[in-house]
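Students often ask why inverse folding is considered easier than folding. One informal answer: many sequences map to the same fold, so there is more than one right answer. In these notes we will look at a single instance of the problem. The structure comes first.
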């Protein structure tokens, strides 16, 4: 398939994308990447905010749940499921209404829903706000990928993707200690209000004043996805078996991510015996190493030009390390191994998104990324509640860890058919 890079700026326009030619990339592209990075960090603060509160008695009493692993896990599952569905069915809004405008409206809603969560007085109201937050955040990754496609030449796309993608692990790495500090010192409601203000006062103005849909001097796509039906876009890649390998792989990766994001603090406290006031380091470390894994893998995969092998090794390594976590007796060793597992997981993601840009048709990037990320999140949404149900049924957190191990090992095998070409 002819790429935008190979054909240059004029032919790229004919292909239906505004990606810059190799020699004419705008120097402003790194500012765009930085804004996208900050938006992802803020969104991840919102996503993991309730996980820190699973052991908070004030939070449990306000919602009327007590320590009920299944109900608490449902707060994460409901968000992720809504997020995945929104990613699938609303991925076109960036093409239809404009990338900057769509991201700005979404960010405003993030702030509104976090404010409403701060006032929640029941499990039902909190669950409803988590669902609405998921809907509002769902299109973010497809919008972000479309911006990367438009602003960056192909040779830089893995590195550009790694910049905003490290917002995910850093959002968790910073978010867990931040939420622990805020809810310990000011209460969980104040913590939610802080996150709401971050969205509205910091992220929204950055998007409105500095983000642009296209590089200066580069025309908007001549055949935008907005001008064709959503179903016709989906048809461009749904018949491609390579796309479904990405879907399987990403679904397995997101089972791991949402399981870890939901239950890591609780696992460290209840199983490994860490004092809640001292879990910040071990909640931070996995996501910091995940960030390092993303940076290293992005550089390596761009340099060698082979995405699939990096993806396979990363996800398989994450599962293997997590299995060892379940059998080691020492608490600190287990915590370090969780971080090692997260490092491997992080190394699988930037090359995956760069691989998707090679496989997806240029005019269907937004919907294609929305579908494979949305389906992955719908599948991954099951992870928090399944793990919670297993904990409740067996009384063992290690049964829940096996969900992560099995998913990552099986999912990594989806890269095997792509190894020869990618």
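Output (designed amino acids):
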């Amino acid at each position: 398939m002819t790429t935008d890079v190979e054909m240059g700026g004029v032919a790229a326009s004919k292909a239906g994308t505004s990606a810059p030619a190799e020699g004419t990339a705008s120097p402003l592209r790194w500012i765009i990447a930085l804004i996208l990075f900050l938006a992802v960090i803020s969104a991840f603060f919102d996503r993991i905010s309730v996980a820190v509160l699973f052991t908070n008695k004030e939070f449990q009493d306000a919602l009327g749940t007590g320590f009920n692993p299944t109900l608490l896990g449902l707060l994460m599952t409901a968000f992720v499921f809504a997020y995945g569905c929104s990613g699938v069915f609303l991925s076109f809004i960036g093409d239809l209404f404009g990338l900057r405008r769509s991201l700005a409206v979404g960010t405003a809603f993030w702030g509104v829903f976090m404010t409403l969560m701060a006032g929640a007085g029941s499990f039902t109201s909190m669950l409803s706000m988590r669902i609405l937050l998921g809907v509002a955040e769902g299109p973010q990754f497809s919008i972000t990928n479309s911006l990367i496609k438009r602003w960056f030449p192909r040779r830089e796309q893995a590195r550009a993707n790694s910049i905003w993608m490290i917002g995910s692990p850093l959002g968790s790495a910073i978010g867990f200690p931040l939420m622990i500090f805020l809810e310990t010192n000011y209460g969980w409601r104040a913590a939610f209000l802080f996150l709401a203000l971050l969205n509205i006062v910091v992220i929204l103005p950055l998007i409105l004043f500095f983000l642009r849909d296209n590089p200066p001097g580069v025309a908007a796509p001549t055949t935008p996805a907005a001008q064709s039906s959503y179903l016709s876009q989906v048809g461009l890649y749904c018949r491609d078996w390579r796309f479904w390998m990405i879907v399987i792989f990403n679904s397995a990766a997101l089972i791991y991510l949402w399981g870890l994001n939901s239950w890591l603090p609780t696992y460290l406290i209840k199983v490994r015996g860490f004092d809640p006031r001292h879990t910040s380091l071990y909640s931070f470390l996995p996501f910091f190493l995940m960030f390092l894994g993303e940076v290293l893998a992005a550089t390596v995969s761009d340099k060698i030009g082979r995405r699939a092998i990096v993806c396979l090794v990363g996800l398989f390594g994450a599962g293997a390390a997590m299995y060892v976590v379940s059998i080691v007796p020492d608490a600190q060793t287990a915590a370090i191994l969780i971080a090692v597992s997260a490092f491997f997981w992080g190394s699988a993601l930037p090359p995956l998104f760069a691989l998707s840009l090679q496989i997806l048709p240029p005019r269907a990037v937004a919907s294609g990324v929305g579908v494979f990320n949305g389906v992955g999140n719908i599948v991954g949404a099951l992870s928090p509640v399944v793990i919670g149900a297993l904990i409740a049924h067996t009384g063992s957190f290690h049964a829940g860890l096996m969900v992560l191990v099995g998913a990552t090992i099986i999912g990594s095998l989806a890269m095997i058919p792509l190894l020869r070409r990618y």
